[in-house]
């Protein structure tokens, strides 16, 4: 349970705290799934920028 908490709960806590994603703004499952996918994409891009750096990330995306 501790390992799960460390790996799984961190992204959701970060999205909730930094991005203000406390609740979904849309209704119906497909729209909520799309909203969640965008939130996760934003989290992953932010994390990639912090780990790799902005210039190498842009170079990797352009390649």
From TrEMBL:
Pfam families: DDE_Tnp_1 (PF01609). Residues 4-45 form the Transposase IS4-like domain. It comes from the Bacteria. This is Transposase.
């Amino acid at each position: 349970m501790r390992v799960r908490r460390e790996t799984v709960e961190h992204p959701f806590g970060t999205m909730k705290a930094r991005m203000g994603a406390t609740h979904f703004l849309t209704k119906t499952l497909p729209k909520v799934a799309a909203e969640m996918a965008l939130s996760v994409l934003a989290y992953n891009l932010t994390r990639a920028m912090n780990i790799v750096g902005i210039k190498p990330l842009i170079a990797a995306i352009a390649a």
